[in-house]
Amino acid sequence: MERMTFTKSLLVIFSGCIGLLVSLSTFLLIKETSPLTYNIVGHAKTICILVSGVVFFEDKITSKKFVGIVVALSGMIWYGQIKLRLRKESERGKKKPDVEQSVMLDNLNLEASCNNEKMS
Prior knowledge:
Blueprint: H1 6-32, H2 35-57, H3 63-92, H4 99-119
Helix pairs in contact: 1-2, 2-3, 2-4, 3-4
């Protein structure tokens, strides 16, 4: 069995600190936005990872990956447009954002998220 060196100990501590910061940023993002927005950010991160793999490691984009990226991007754009429209309507004072619309949007995005996970 290999002994734990000072460098390895520092790397373990550094990794733990990074994990703590990721958890803290997740908590703050959900606090300021919503769990659904956090889910959308997660999909954006996945797309960045896939694109980085292609750019830096010459990974091949299969048709399955391409369709997944297009579906995820379409969902993010659609979600963003609806959120902006609801925010503009509430700022104008026309009406408060419809709770039923928000729940329906959340359900649609969760269904799309589940379908996207199945494709991966």
